[in-house]
Amino acid sequence: MVKYHSTRGSCPPVSFEQAVLQGFAADGGLFVPHPITRLSRDRLNHWKHLCYVDLAKEVMSCFIDSTIVPKQDLGCLLDESFASFDKADPPLLSIDSDGQSWVLELFHGPTLSFKDVAMGFLIRVMDYFLDRRNDQLSLILATTGDTGPAAAYAAAGRKRISCWPLFPAGMISKEQELQMTTIGAENVTPVGVRGCLEGGDDLDLVVARLFGDGRLTNRLKLSSVNSINIGRVLMQAVHYFYAYFRLIERFGDALIFSIPAGAFGNSCGGEIARAMGLPIQFICATNKNHTLHRIFSAGIFEKLPLQHSLSSAIDIVVPYNFWRFLYLRSDLDPEVVNRSMSELKDRGKVTFDVSLSHKLSRGVVSASVTDEQTLVTMRDLYEQTGYLLDPHGAVAVAGAAQCRSMMAKPTPCVSVATAHPAKFPEVIKKALGSNHQLPEAAFHPSLEEAKHADVKMMTCNYEELEKRLVEEIEASLQGQQSDK
Questions:
Q1: Residue 409 CB partners (closer than 8 Å, separation 6+)
Q2: Catalytic option among 48, 87, 115, 429
Q3: Domains defined for the chain, CATH in brackets
Q4: 341-358 pLDDT tens trace
Q5: What average pLDDT score do residues 416-435 get?
Q6: What is this structure's pTM?
Q7: Catalytic residue check, 359
Q8: In whole angstroms, what is the distance from residue 292 CA to residue 53 CA?
């Protein structure tokens, strides 16, 4: 049976159910599955013609024992998760004349973001476990744009779950904010936090402190659906299998994915797929917050000041899923993770030795993309093909162009488009120029409706966030108890 081990190594492994409901491990680490099933070539061939949802059922069954979630129940949960998508099979589109550059659109879910791909399933499976336990959970999560709306939508109306998406006020697009604040569900309370000098990283620190207090975590019934939750990361492995199978007959095994990287959860999903035997490589595409680029290109992990960019959802300077990646690449050695985390905390910088740097960069190249390069990529692709990218997808495409120009031979590349462009109209205006009328692809009916809906949210200053959250969650739990 697959068990879930902490990257910090000082607590016993747990089941999938425990890992999903806890979020963080008891020692503050992140859960990683072990063993990871290594797929045979025959099994991969058996999967290659499956639709996305059926492929998800196969991949997830490798990590969820049927004694935890019977296969029939797992199938139902996944079917329900994708029922609200306008395209359950994500489109894979060629964006150049020679068929070497592709875009995988992962934004056809209810909140127009790739976060919907995993969030719907994760919250449904949490609800499934809570029903079985007759229990409740308080979900807190930090968002720099898309995680919050996806969590709010998936949690809305669920009687055993309250959801508290935290976002740095003024640092996400108005469209993303409205997707959270107009949801209208009693069990969802978005929190706009003023004074986050380090953006989402400041909020991550508050979340980590709350989870670091075991008694408080138990009292408030805390869990999270950020990509700290292993359920999210595992589901994000599926789209790599899907795109690979759609292109394998055209290109064989030579395929590279360019991924816009913030907290690094989507890339960790890809690393899980690689560990299962999928023969793919990655481009880690960062914006000017290039922590990950420095790790892969120079072997240095350093926390630098946050820089606000046009690709705001990946404005992250401490990509917490990197600790998962480090654990996997260091042969499941928690001491490597603990030592590196301590060095980063004490000195603000970790320099990896040559041997470990080589392990980390195996099959991974990286790029740092400026705002100007993001805008140029959006404009050029639109003018050449009529295709409109969001700024994060543009980071992936620009990063791919940088890295492929240095490769010895042309390698087909799939750039991951993580959000609908309509969530970023101001960036589109900058990219296309003031003389351009916004194209039809820059609008979406659900976002237009949200502009006229009632807003419900809580606001507070960063200094008071922790205290206010504890008070509000306690009051919410007491209200739920009195309603029984």
A1: none
A2: 115
A3: 92-111+235-441 (3.40.50.1100)
A4: 999 999 999 999 999 999
A5: 93
A6: 0.93
A7: no
A8: 31
